[in-house]
Write a structure and sequence with these properties.
Jelly Rolls, nine-stranded mixed beta sheet, 4 domains, mainly beta, five-stranded antiparallel beta sheet
Length: about 425
């Protein structure tokens, strides 16, 4: 006796002496039974609204195998069918997309040749819903798929990847109740054990894929595994980037409080003014990763600079007038506040000692006291003068330890060389005037 295992999403019926009709809500289904040589089993199904693709397959091997026949509207037979997959000694599959695929009633026939051994019927049916590429104009997206049922199960989707101006592709599964997980792969439907990207967090899920991993025009496929009662939406496409404008000298160019998206990232863009000596980024005590990139949205695997909690960016990487992108990682739903501003400088009088109390930005450093040597000569001037200009603001970065990836030795050398030339000029002037 055959049975139908209803795992998800289409309306299905086993055609036998008693016609049974089942209404389902997601997009995957498995037909189970027994295939005897010289017999056939017939199944009827109607893809759900929004489906755009169909994949029907039956397992098989060299000794035990079956054929697939498919027809719209009526039962197929050996000479009257719309589609057929009839390889001997192997599994068979029928895959449809528009214009061949339609939202209509289909009847599938699983036929087992006389030459095959008897074997268990395991035929899988998946219908895919095509998603629209989101332009990334809002944080929550404008091209959003909304799940309108409370039935759990497997939901399959297809997305054709488009060109991205930001060098990244985001996917956000926003779960408002219940639980759901997200899987993504290229070229075929994914599973929890067969995928390229996955997110199995409690609550909302998502990820950001770097441009190096995909090309425009490729077809990629999602699986959302949802628990009964789960409510969720799905958006995929261009990342959303908050424009912070020109980097200011105060807090006005920061982000304020923003909520972390389901993809686990928030992105920002900002332009640094010409002749800016340093640019500071600070998460007000949080230790989330800060990523910086010039050419597009930075991700963990593709960025120019990366540091936890705070960052000081200086030349030669820092270029006045340049547009920079900043990414901050975090748990979906958490709140961050990115402080982005020009780093302030304060002159310290020469040949003095100055105590600096550190708090906020750079507060992992201890208070410092700067002392100048009592005796100077030209070879010492370079190192002495380097200590005369201190990084200040709400705090301090010490010894270049928290400069983005590396202290800019070249910039400081040029500055110190100029100061040394200034000192030599003054010595020369003194000698000419008779002062010793």
């Amino acid at each position: 006796m055959n049975k139908v295992s209803l795992l998800s999403g289409v309306r299905a019926a086993l055609l036998s002496s008693a016609f049974a009709l089942f209404t389902l809500s997601s997009s995957a289904q498995t037909f189970l039974g027994t295939n005897a040589p010289g017999t056939a089993q017939t199944f009827s199904f109607t893809p759900g609204a929004g489906a755009t693709n169909l994949a029907l397959s039956v397992a098989g091997g060299s000794a035990a195998y079956s054929h697939l026949l498919l027809k719209a509207g009526t039962v197929p037979n050996d000479t009257n069918y719309d589609f057929i997959a009839s390889l001997d000694g192997a599994g068979n599959a029928i895959n449809l997309e528009a214009p061949q695929f339609q939202i209509t009633n289909y009847v599938a026939r699983v036929r087992t040749p006389v030459a095959s051994l008897q074997h268990a019927l395991n035929s899988d049916l998946i219908t895919f819903t095509t998603l629209n590429w989101d332009p990334g104009t809002t944080h929550l997206g404008t091209q959003v798929y909304t799940n309108n049922t409370t039935n759990g199960g497997d939901y399959f989707f297809k997305i054709t990847v488009q060109n991205t101006a930001l060098g990244a592709w985001r996917t956000a599964l926003n779960v408002s109740s219940g639980e759901a997980n997200l899987y993504l792969t290229k070229g075929a439907g994914p599973s929890p054990n067969n995928n390229l990207y996955k997110s199995e967090q409690t609550g909302s899920d998502g990820f950001v894929v770097p441009a190096s991993a995909f090309s425009a025009g490729e077809d990629w496929y999602y699986l959302v595994q949802a628990s009964p009662g789960a409510q969720w939406t799905l958006v995929t496409g261009e990342p959303f980037v908050t424009d912070l404008g020109m980097v200011a000298s105060g807090s006005s160019s920061g982000s304020g409080n923003v909520t972390m998206g389901a993809e686990g990232m928030r992105f920002f863009k900002t332009t640094v003014p010409v002749n800016s000596p340093a640019w500071r980024l600070y998460l007000n005590g949080l230790t989330n990763s800060i990523l910086v990139k010039k050419s597009g949205a930075p991700v963990v695997s593709a960025n120019d600079l990366a540091q936890a909690g705070q960052m000081l960016v200086v030349p030669s990487y820092l270029i006045g007038g340049q547009l920079y992108f900043v990414g901050v990682s975090g748990a979906p739903g958490s709140t961050i506040n990115l402080d982005s501003r020009q780093q302030a400088f304060e002159d310290i009088p020469f040949l003095t000692s100055t105590n600096v109390s550190v708090s906020g930005f750079g507060s992992d450093q201890h208070d410092r006291q700067q002392r100048q040597p009592e005796h100077r000569c030209a070879p010492q001037f370079h190192s002495e003068r380097k200590q005369q200009r201190r990084l200040l603001g709400s705090g301090e970065q010490r010894d270049g330890q928290h400069l983005a990836r590396a202290a800019d030795a070249e910039r400081w050398d040029l500055l110190h060389h100029g100061l040394r030339q200034q000192q030599l000029f003054r010595h020369s002037a003194k000698r000419q005037s008779g002062i010793h």
